[in-house]
Amino acid sequence: MKKHGLLAAVLILALSTGLSAAGSSADKPGMQVFGDLGLAVSDFEGLFFDAGFQYGFSPKLFGEFLFEYYFSPAGSGIDSSAWGLNVNGVYKHGLSDGLSLFGKAGVCLIHTSASVVFMGTKISASDSDIGFNAGGGVEYALSENMGLRGGATFKISFAEGETGTFFKLYAGFFYGL
Hints:
8-stranded antiparallel β-barrel
């Protein structure tokens, strides 16, 4: 239950921060809030959602803050989850009216936790790691302020003596402010 409260608080904070920003036109950098759903594969598999915002430093260069939450895979017998915080630089290139490609790279904090009941005893473990991520995708504007987005991101995290990898595919929406 605490996880759901934390998720709600982060989403409200991200959206309220984004909604308090001044509006922008197509020629000026602006702010954008977004949300995505997707599938993660590799070290952690399962569904996830993202929520975040981007701030435009120029019409093509943006800073991005992203919160992500990974759900426990169904039927695994292990109650596992992960969440992450990401700070990225984003470059956007317009292809045509309303269609643009983006590339992004940055740093991430990933926290994973798992628990299982073995012979009546609950065994739990958790870990937090710092890493890097890079990805890209496409955005399509449906109107002046709203649109759809999709993409892929690869993450690598560094723990004591080992590395972890995440690869995720996602689709979602954005709202420009």
